[in-house]
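In practice, a research group might receive sequence data for several interacting partners and want a quick structural hypothesis before committing to experiments. The following worked case mirrors that situation: the sequences arrive first, and a predicted assembly follows.
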Amino acid sequence: MMLKLHGFGASNYVNMVKLALLEKGTEFEFVVDYPTQEEDFLAINPIGKVPVLETEHGFLSETAMILEYIDRVSDGPALFPSEPFANAHLKQIMHMIELYIELPARRCYAEVFFGGSVSDETKEQVKAALIKGSRALARITDFSPYVAGDSFSAADAMFLYSFDLASAVARKLFDLDLRAEAPGAADLIDRLNQRDTAKQVAAERDAAMEKFLKYARGGK
Ligand SMILES: N[C@@H](CCC(=O)N[C@@H](CS)C(=O)NCC(=O)O)C(=O)O
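A structural hypothesis for the assembly, expressed as C-alpha cells:
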C-alpha cells in the first residue's frame, strides 16, 4: 500500500513530513484532513491533530516518529544517522526545537496568523521562552552545513518549518529578530528553502493557505 499523508498544506508539521517524503523520493498520496475532535478522526489520531501517516500496518501520528518510520521503510538518502550517538544527538536537537521553539511560538499563532489575540502575560512568557530556546539551539549547532551533521536530515525539516514561524512571531509581536539569537540559522533557512523539494512544499503551502485561513477564522 502506498503511504498516505493526512493533513493540509498550510500546516508546518504536515510540511515537515511532506518535505521528508520528497527528499526520500517516496511516493505518497496526500489526503486533505483538518484537525478535529470528531470521533472518526480521533480513530486515526487519538489527539486529533495532523499530520497522520496511513501505512499498511495502521495509522501513525507525532511528526518526529513519522519521520523516523518513513526513513526506515523508504529508499533514498538517510534522514537519521545510524551511529547511536549521532542518532540520539539528532533526536535531541529535534526534541529541543519542538519543545523550546515550536511549542512556545504556537501559543501566539492565534494572534500572529489567525486574527485572534493572546494575553500580555502569554506574550511575555513566549518571548522569554523563544530567546532561551534559540540560544540553546545555537549552543548545540552552528547551522552549517545543516542543523545536525553534513547532510540534510529530519532535524532540518523540523527546524525549517518551526524556526521560520517562531521568527515571524518574534518579529511581529516583540519586534525581535530571533535569527540574531541563533547566528547561522537565517542562512540555513535560506539554503534549505532553495531545495527543489522545499520549493514544492512552499508552493503547495501558499496554494492551500487561503482555504485554511478561512477555516481557521471560522468561515467555510
Ligand atoms: N506534536 C504533534 C503536533 C502536531 C500539530 O500541532 N499539528 C497542528 C497543525 S500544524 C494541529 O493539528 N493542531 C490542531 C490541534 O492542536 O488541535 C506532531 O508532532 O505531529
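Before designing any experiment, note the following. The chain has two domains: 3-78, 84-196. Residues 65 and 91 are 10 Å apart (CA to CA).
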